[in-house]
């Protein structure tokens, strides 16, 4: 599969995440994708600790919540309801621009 096919797969996955009402995950890439698309997300830390370490960079995003224990889950859902962020078109444009820059950098590394 060529670079265009891979790009299409990535954009399709991001659209799928964006179309969901809530993402619950323990994977780093899914949490980052939710952050990029403005999708509410509850991320459980995993054994490697990567989720928690990266969360520190995006913790000011009120629509992303880190959950360290299963017992915190209800509180995190309520926090998302309370802090529900309405992502504006300009927010999404900014995120897409950031994503495009990151994508271009990755292409340089690949090629």
Description:
With 111 residues, the protein is mainly α. The protein has 5 helices and 3 strands, in the order αβαβαβαα. It has helices at residues 3-19, 28-37, 50-58, 73-82, 89-110, and strands spanning 23-25, 41-44, 64-67. A 3-stranded parallel β-sheet has the order 1-2-3, with helices on both faces. It is globular, with a radius of gyration of 15 Å. The relative contact order is 0.13. The mean pLDDT is 81.
Helices and strands in order:
Blueprint lengths: L2 H17 L3 E3 L2 H10 L3 E4 L5 H9 L5 E4 L5 H10 L6 H22 L1
Parallel strand pairs: 1-2, 2-3
Helix pairs in contact: 1-2
Principal-axis shape equals globular
Q: What radius of gyration results from the CA coordinates? A: 15 Å
Q: Report the sheet-strand fraction.
A: 5-15%
Q: Average pLDDT across residues?
A: 81
The helix content is 55-70%
Our measurement of the CA-to-CA distance between the termini, rounded to an integer number of angstroms, reads: 15 Å
Which descriptors apply to this entry?
about 110 residues; mainly alpha; three-stranded parallel beta sheet; 5 helices; globular
Question: How would you sum up this structure in a few lines?
Answer:
The protein has 111 residues and is mainly alpha-helical. Helices cover 61% and strands 10% of the residues.
